[in-house]
Every structure is written in structure tokens, then in C-alpha cells.
From TrEMBL:
Native source organism of the sequence: Sphingomonas alba
Name used for this protein in its record: SDR family oxidoreductase
Matching InterPro entries: NAD(P)-bd_dom_sf (IPR036291), SDR_fam (IPR002347)
Pfam families on file: adh_short_C2 (PF13561)
Domain of life: Bacteria
Length: 251
């Protein structure tokens, strides 16, 4: 296998950690980004700490890849996820979401492009399945992910001629969200037509698929068990799986 490096943001916990562990198992050299000094990363990964809200985050993260094999994969996984909606809108919260969820992936993608010389490279942006059937909950978060989805296509068009592919993965609820109680999580995890809860391993498998498909760029893989077909009117954690009033006529 060709020596190659992958950078994964938010690799200390949750889905990002599973992605980093999967890539390590596949033989990648992994630079694992963490937000806090006290965060650990999967054994075998190269740890780098950076605040994605800072404009210098990309240069700090890519410095950790100096003297490593070429960076062939960038997974923009880390994200800010805080509640707001119309009626409780805070412009500072929108700015914070845009800095982490959009500006940081743009800066990191630009950093990869600036050092890329030849061969296949891939950027994967972690999006959200709710983009296929939007609802107004988590307004700033949703706007930032919609912007990142737009950037995914724009970057794919701009970088294809250089052999750099850009794709997205849009998963539904996988792990319990902040503020979501365990009972609600368990009842909603499999609340989709396939009645199969989405797991972090499903996202890791999608990363593997995209990495192994060098003719694919500009595509977004939605992993939601078909939940988008129902056109939910609220974010899934605010719904009851027992009441049809919470589901649109598309159910």
C-alpha cells in the first residue's frame, strides 16, 4: 500500500474517533485533531490540538503532517452543534457555527490543495441528513451545514482538474445529542422507514467507499435509513415516534 496520511478533525471522540480508528486499521498514517489539551486520540494516531474557531487552525493542523507521507485524505468531521431558532436567534451563535462548521473546512481544504502535487486526494465533509428534508430547529447549525454542502460542490468543481476530489457524508442521528435524554434517543434512533439506527461504523464505511472510488467527486452520501422520505417537521429529538401529527403526509 502506498504510504499516505489522513487528517481527521474532531478525532478524539464520537464519530471522528471511529473514523480515525478505521483509517488506522486500514494502514493510513492518521493526524488526529482534538479540541482540548486533555483530549486523547486513538492509539497510533498523531495528535494535534487546535481551536477550529481560530483562523490559524489549518496551518497548525497541517504542521503536524510535516515529514509524514503525503496527505491524501482530509475528513472535516468536527462541528459546533448548539440550539437556536427564529425567536431565539443570536448573531454571535451564527458566527460561531460558521467559523467552525464552514470556515475551518474551507481553510483546511485550501491547505491541502496548496501542498498537493500529484495523485488522488480526497476531502470529505461531514454534513447532516436533515439537509435533505430541512426543518427550522438548530437554525445556525443548519445554515452552516447548508453552506458546507454548497462548498462541497464548489470545491469539487474547482479542484477536480488537480486530482482532488471533494465529497460529503450526511448521516442522521447516530449518538445521543447534547440535551437529549436516553429514552428519547433510544426511541428515535431507529425512527426511519428501514427501522435501522445509523451507527458511526456506517459513516466509517462510507469514508472507506469514497476513498476507494477515485472517479467520484461532488457527491453527498445520505445515510438516514430513508428518514428524509417522511419530511419531519421538527428535529428528530423533538418528535414522538407514536404520533402521526409529527410526521408530514410524505410518511
Amino acid at each position: 500500500m502506498e504510504s499516505r496520511t489522513a487528517i481527521v478533525t474532531g478525532a478524539a471522540k464520537r464519530v471522528g474517533r471511529v473514523i480515525a480508528e478505521t483509517l488506522l486499521a486500514d494502514g493510513w498514517t492518521v493526524v488526529a485533531h482534538a479540541h482540548h489539551e486533555g483530549d486523547d486520540v486513538p492509539p497510533g494516531a498523531i495528535r494535534v490540538v487546535a481551536d477550529l474557531a481560530e483562523r490559524e487552525c489549518a496551518s497548525r493542523i497541517f504542521e503536524a503532517a510535516n515529514r509524514l507521507p503525503p496527505v491524501r485524505l482530509l475528513v472535516n468531521n468536527a462541528a459546533r452543534f448548539a440550539p437556536d431558532t427564529l425567536g431565539s436567534f443570536d448573531s454571535a451563535e451564527l458566527d460561531a457555527h460558521m467559523a467552525v462548521n464552514l470556515r475551518a473546512p474551507v481553510l483546511l481544504t485550501e491547505a491541502l490543495a496548496s501542498q498537493h502535487e500529484s495523485g488522488d486526494a480526497l476531502v470529505i465533509n461531514l454534513l447532516d441528513a436533515k439537509l435533505s428534508a430541512p426543518n427550522p430547529d438548530f437554525l445556525s447549525y443548519t445554515l452552516s451545514k447548508q453552506a458546507l454542502a454548497g462548498f462541497t460542490e464548489l470545491a469539487a468543481r474547482a479542484l477536480a482538474g488537480r486530482g482532488i476530489r471533494v465529497c460529503g457524508i450526511a448521516p442522521a442521528l447516530m449518538l445521543r445529542s447534547p440535551g437529549q435524554d436516553e429514552d428519547n434517543y433510544r426511541s428515535m434512533h431507529e425512527f426511519n422507514p428501514l427501522k435501522r439506527g445509523v451507527e458511526p461504523d456506517d459513516v466509517a464505511a462510507a469514508v472507506r467507499f469514497l476513498a476507494a472510488t477515485p472517479t467520484m467527486t461532488g457527491e453527498i452520501l445520505t445515510i438516514d435509513g430513508g428518514q428524509r422520505f417522511w419530511g419531519l417537521s421538527r428535529d428528530v429529538q423533538f418528535l414522538s415516534p407514536y404520533g402521526d401529527s409529527d410526521v408530514s403526509e410524505g410518511r
